[in-house]
Amino acid sequence: MTVLPILQWPDARLSTRCAEVEGVDEAVRILAADMLETMYAAPGRGLAAPQVGAMLRLFVMDTGWKAGARQPRVCVNPDLLWMSDDRATGPEGCLSLPGLTSEISRARAVRLRWIGLDGAEREEELHGFDAICAQHEFDHLDGIVTLHRLSPEARARAEAEIRA
Ligand code: NI
Description:
The protein is of the alpha+beta class. It contains three helices and seven strands, in the order H-E-E-E-E-E-E-E-H-H. Strand 6 and strand 7 form a beta hairpin. The longest helix is centred in the N-terminal third of the chain and has 16 residues, at about 25-40. The radius of gyration is 15 Å and the shape is globular. About 35% of the residues are buried. The model has no long low-confidence stretch (mean pLDDT about 95). Bound molecules: nickel (II) ion.
């Protein structure tokens, strides 16, 4: 497995919508393994394929590994089937925006459907940090980073902070 370079904002690929994965083949399994290696090395709790320059609808996440055993999740062609109306605002960082933490409003719970590396479809209701992480990584697949979720004023402040 290989630790891949993580693209940094404002790389244009981070603002680009990704294509569906056509099928879970060996290339996709290698990409997912490399992405997990890259995420753990960073260290981070989620990583989306476009962050390593692979313009595919695929992300990996493991929200609990810093406090316990590794439980990697690989989500191919994920879909957010439902998002709770109940929302919460909390601090989020991103491996493509190092040093920046932004207060982002997210649904507290989501229902996520995805295809696993075995090619089988899965569906799960996620809560708490899992729900936030899934929404953050899902955003990356649509070319959305935390900056895009801020008010114009907050975004201007954040961009000044990145440039500093
Ligand atoms: Ni991110």
